[in-house]
Amino acid sequence: MTPTSFRFLKALCVGVSALMVVAACGNNPTTTSTNLAADQTLRFPLLDDFGTLDPAIADAETDQEISQNMFNGVVKFDNNLNVVPDIASKMPVVSSDNLTYTFSLRHDVTFSNGDKVTSKDVLYSWNRAAAMSGAYGTSYGTNLAAIVGYGTASSNKAVGAALEKLLEANDPSVVMSGLTAPDDYTVKVQLAFPAGWFLSAISLTGSTGQLVDVNAVKQDFDNWWTNPATAIGTGPYKMTSRVPKASVDFASVSNWWGSPKPTITKVHLDIINDASTAITKYEQGGYDIYGYGGYSNAPVADVLRIQGTPSEKSQLLIHAKVRTTWLSFNMVSDNKRLAKGPFTLDGGQSAHDLRLAFALAIDKKKLATVVCSDVVCEAATGGLITKGLIGYLGDGADPLGAYDPAKAKSLLTGADPTGSKTKGLTYVYDPSNPLNKPTAEFLQSQWKDNLGVSVELQAVSHSAFIKSRLKGDYVLSRDGWQADYNHPQDWFDNLWGSALGCPDSSCTTGYHTQAYDDLVKKADQETGDAALADYKKLSQMLIDDVVYIPLFYSRGSFLFKPYVKGAGTNNFVDYPWAGIQILSH
Amino acid sequence: MLTRGTLIYISQRLVLIVFTVLAVSSAVFLGIHRLPGDALFNEHLHGVEYQNILHHYGLDLPLWQQYTNFLSGMFLHGDLGEPFVNRGVKIAPLVLREATVSAEVGLFALLFTVGLGMLLGVVAAVRQNTWVDYVLSTTSVIGYSMPSFVIATFLLLFFAIWLDNVTQGGFYFQIGWTGTYGTIGEIWLPAFALGFPYASIVARLTRASMLEVIRQDYIRTARAKGLRETVIMVRHALRNALIPVITILGPLVIGIITGGVIIENIFGIPGLGKEFATSILNRDYNIVIGVFTMYAALIGIANLGVDLLYVVIDPRIRY
Amino acid sequence: MAVTAAAVVVRPITPVQASLWSDAWRRLRRNRLALAGAVFLVFLTGVALVAFVYTPYPMAAVAVAAPYSGPSAAHWFGADVIGRDVLSRVMVGAQISLTVGVGTQLVVLAIGVPVGLIAGYFGGWIDSIVSFAVNVFYGVPDLLVALLLVVLLGHPGLDKIIIAISVTRWMDMTRLVRGQTLALREREFVEAARASGARPIKILFGHILPNALGPVIVQATFGVPAAILFEAFLSFLGLGVPPPQPSWGSMAADGLSAIRIAPHMVIAPSIALSLTLMSFNFLGDGLRDALDPRSRR
Known about the structure:
The complex is a heterotrimer of chains A (about 575), B (about 325) and C (about 300).
Chain A: H1 3-26, E1 41-46, H2 61-67, E2 75-77, E3 83-85, E4 93-94, E5 100-104, H3 119-135, H4 150-154, H5 160-168, E6 179-183, E7 186-190, H6 198-203, H7 214-217, E8 237-243, E9 247-252, E10 266-271, H8 275-283, E11 289-290, H9 300-307, H10 310-313, E12 316-329, H11 348-360, H12 364-372, E13 377-379, H13 405-415, E14 425-429, H14 436-451, E15 455-459, H15 465-469, E16 476-482, H16 489-495, H17 514-524, H18 528-544, E17 548-560, E18 564-565, E19 581-582
Parallel strand pairs in A: 1-10, 14-15, 14-16
Antiparallel strand pairs in A: 2-3, 4-5, 5-7, 6-7, 8-9, 9-10, 11-17, 12-16, 12-17, 13-17, 18-19
Helix pairs in contact in A: 3-5, 11-13, 17-18
Chain B: H1 4-33, H2 47-56, H3 63-77, H4 91-126, H5 131-145, H6 148-166, H7 184-214, H8 217-225, H9 229-267, H10 272-282, H11 285-313
Chain C: H1 20-30, H2 32-53, H3 86-122, H4 124-139, H5 142-152, H6 158-184, H7 188-195, H8 200-236, H9 248-256, H10 264-291
């Protein structure tokens, strides 16, 4: 080749490659396979081992963040929190009275072991969840509570292999009569009342609405999910190995029926109890993501530091999480609730004033500044339901979120002139979230400075939390709730009221009044704006009775390496693993 | 060396270990069982269903029955039950695995402690009252006066973070633990941090003991005979200077085992110490019993090993 | 001018009557490290006492400075996680460390000395029981037992910690005193006392104990830093004194996670802790060298 033509060829090559680069930058890089790394393994840390992966029992954020990749339900939330079909081929047909939902299932859904999914799998999974709700005391069994026959199924007491026998025999004691399967791919659900929250409840990620394989479950009713051979679901990922409390590995299911098809072929999770260690390992390149799996509470110091490091700043994502932290009083004193204390409802107006005094003595905005540096949380001034959710009262709309030390002091002097009632109080918190201890110390100093009351602090681990409240010294405790889906029912049904089990059954405050119980029952059975209006009245009830001291709304902190695409979070959960890709780096 | 007497001694000690394990686990089991506030309750458990959970863990049986179940489980089946917090996991294989990890790190720490400590002690003794001696002596005092978590953190800062930045990721200490047994690259820094305070103690002891030995007559004789200084130091002096070190080896090993609790928490090593700290804070009493049992066994075995070492080192000792 | 024999006054050399204590004091004074340690400890005690009435800022006052801010003119040691003054907290922490350290040793002395004396003097089955108990306690890891005890005893508090540490550390003192008693009871002055009809209590506390006092003091002096370190470990694991009381250990633990942006939070209590421990160790070394006439440096 002559030099001139060589140079021309070179120019041509350069030009063509330039065009290709431009083309690649302009379009979505995920469409070109040349960008993907050869090793599609995703690695991230968990700060604690998960408790269970059985959708019928799972209630912790970690459990659900993982199992959402292993299981599917008939419907699900998309990344924008809209309910969309999952195993169902289209949205259900709802009768005009809102009592009957008819789901049509896809024909191509299979479990990771090849078993085909039919309508009887839906029946089995939901009946099992309802039956376990009674015998195992699960948290989210009540998501199915609107279905006819749930009452029967959830009063079942059989467990383990015995329960499995009953389920397979379709024994009436464990079957919800309102759940029927007219044919192999149709499921008809009969509700006992027109619950507007039903679709949201069964869409809940990694929870009671999700399908399990009877062939796998019956091998070991309680522990099938611990063993990769029997941890079978319909999701795009399956467990391949597990070393308890040390690590877990997952692999993608080949020819998965759903979409988007998984790009990540392997997921490796380490269990590292210390957040700072995990972040250091992330920065060393040992992990690709931080914050997934329900561990988005990075220590403030690390967040501030990364914000101040130019090379890492862009990897940090601070995102609102639908989580509120507040303080609960013990409101009931009976022979089962030993806590007692000066804040109980039967203390009448003076107890009410005492609670209000304690509430108004806290400067919530300063709390957010001092404890969170205004970065990982913001002051909760609009009610308990987190900002951004339905039922949020509006910025500054919650009178309990105000700061008025003068009024607090005068209320205190009126309600407790000698100071005898507020002697020897203890505030209990769990140090698992790095914000809780500084919050506790802040509260302690505010009560001391503004009210002159000395409150002791007691740290109790997360799982021992409830029990310690019933032990005797606790009267004040940190409390919190992370919303499961965007509906006030999720809050009012799970935190207060007799239906939950208050006052005697591990109910934080013990709070239950006839007015509350009646109204929440009414609201749960309504739909649309009528329901929302009633839930707002419930909020007002809580405010009038000073059931809580609001503290802050949390923000989650995530770290994503620049070569990780498709990872992120909506307010509730992480984006699923199936949408993530690792670019070459 | 492996005489009949020694074998009898070993078997006696093993029996003692079994008894100690029994005593310790019983004490913990019975002591803990009287407590409320354990980890069995999450936020939504309702009163009636709580009975089923109790039944699952056998907590609704009378105490003596629980105790006999516990003993038969442990000695006959090697079964230590299940944790309260994580379902579907058996405690026995869990603590066994973690004990191996802790033993690994502990062994490295021990080798480092004795090796480095003795080396520094000898050097300081030989160079007594020179600047070498002063530097080493001061370092050793600092070594056992500083809390190990401070030393560990600064080491971590230096080797994991600063070195990583300075060499642009070329050379640094990788935090964490891969696989069941870890790699040397992950063990050396925690072992160093764990052993450093004890190495300082060994160094001081070796130095003092060497100084004593050097003044002995037989050393002068050896010098008069014309042996080289190094030969004298190593063959004669060191051997005898070892004895006090061996004396403290028992407490040393125990110190390393308990120091591991702190170090494992800092370096994220999945060992017995980390398990202990987390399960105590979680009030997961089943695991606490299992961890204590494992620790009692580990310490018993370690002490036995030390006593057997005596036989090797000092020919005058026979069992 | 030549010195004549007459001009030289010959002073008779009378031996200075030196008791053990004045001799020891003389030797101690010459040990510069031990002196430095003692001086520091006196200073520390002074700071701890002053902290009862004055600290630059109230030790529990939140947000007196920006959280994580470093040393400055207004805050010599900077501020901590929620904006409290670190210097004030270090000062109060001195109270806690000294209380725990000295308190545990007092308890250990109260247990170990009588038990060791009795076991060593009377021997027989009493001694067997005591030795058995000592061995059992030695076989159990001290940190773990202390952790468990602190958890079991309910609300963490200074007294609970002192109890927990004493329970795991009484054996050293007992063994020492027992050994000393065993050695001393064969001595002639004890025999003489016995022959003259003195009661055992008088013998134990009047004759044996005073002669064993040296090693006992040394042991106690070394025991203090061990107890302080122990308490630091407990606090580090979250089981020490409850907030807002500032133990140096818990201050270091709180500061560890922020070490990359606010190292002063760890450095201040760690240096305080280390200097205190070193001082006690140097002092102990000095006392041991001073009180044992046969030991060589």
